[in-house]
Design goal:
It comes from Cohnella herbarum. Belongs to the Cob(I)alamin adenosyltransferase family. This protein is mainly α. The chain has a single domain, classed as Hypothetical Protein Ta1238, Chain: A, CATH 1.20.1200. The chain has a two-stranded antiparallel sheet. Strand 1 and strand 2 form a beta hairpin. Helix 1 packs antiparallel against helix 2, helix 3 packs parallel to helix 5 and helix 4 runs antiparallel to helix 5. The N and C termini lie far apart (55 Å). The mean pLDDT is 92.
Length: 192
């Protein structure tokens, strides 16, 4: 198998159902998801350098997320989405919410916005969060121009919350406190 095909040398790429420019809104959206997936892999690599028994649950979760990010990209590769072939489901978004609740219970309460940072892993999860938000914005742009599967956008919206939560978990497990943004008004309340 050859990695290069030369078919994209003129600035076009294939999607399921045709060819589009490489800066098409659809390609921008799934390309940003691919970028996010790479950062998730980097964050998992950082955790794997630590004692894996301390991070086994999160490493397993991140592997599932990486597969689901491929599902998101796959769903976006259709020039005209076919509902019967979509891989991202509401159950995947529901599971993200369960993980958020599980991990949030492992963090100290916060009231204000926090600065991205602390541990290397937490910093990378904040990068994942911001790239995820950009991917979501790319989907909003795509939705205004072309057909786009709604469930992918919902999944990404919840996924950015997941990354915020696991960034806090990484710091908490390492005994590091999140640094609150000093001019933030109180914005968070712990759900009961």
């Amino acid at each position: 198998m050859k990695i290069y095909t030369r078919t994209g040398d003129e600035g076009k790429t294939s999607v399921i159902g045709g060819r589009v420019m490489k800066d098409d809104a659809r390609v921008e959206a799934y390309g940003t998801i691919d970028e996010l997936n790479s950062f998730v892999g980097q964050a998992a690599s950082v955790l794997a350098r630590e004692s894996t028994s301390d991070w086994a649950d999160l490493l397993e979760t991140l592997t599932i997320v990486q597969h689901e990010l491929f599902d998101c990209g796959s769903d976006l590769c259709y020039a005209v989405p076919d509902p019967a072939k979509m891989k991202v489901t509401p159950a995947m978004t529901d599971r993200l919410e369960s993980w958020i609740d599980l991990y949030e219970a492992q963090t100290p309460p916060i009231e204000k916005f926090i600065l991205p940072g602390g541990s290397e892993a937490a910093s990378l999860f904040h990068v994942c969060r911001t790239v995820c938000r950009r991917a979501e914005r790319r989907l909003v742009t795509l939705s205004a121009e072309q057909e786009c599967p709604d469930e992918v956008r919902k999944y990404l919206n919840r996924l950015s919350d997941f990354f915020f939560t696991v960034a806090r978990v990484a710091n908490a497990r390492l005994g590091l406190l999140d640094v609150e943004y000093e001019r933030s008004a109180p914005v968070f309340r712990r759900r009961s």
